[in-house]
Amino acid sequence: MFAEFMNFLRACWQQQPSDASVGSDAVGKQDGLLWYKDCGWHVNGEFSMAVVQANSLLEDQCQIESGSLSSLESGPYGTFVGVYDGHGGPETSRYINDHLFQHLKTGFSSEQHSMSADVLRKAYQATEEGFFSLVTKQWPMKPQIAAVGSCCLVGVICGGMLYVANVGDSRVVLGKHVKATGEVLAVQLSAEHNAGIESVRKELQSTHPEDSQIVVLKHNVWRVKGLIQVSRSIGDAYLKRSEFNREPLYAKFRLREPFKKPILSSEPSISVQPLQPHDQFLIFASDGLWEHLSNQEAVDIVHSNPRNGSARRLVKAALQEAAKKREMRYSDLKKIDRGVRRHFHDDITVIVVFLDLNLVSRASSYRGPSLSLRGGGVTVPGNSLAPCA
Question: Which chain positions lie within coiled-coil regions (predicted)?
Answer without folding.
Answer: none
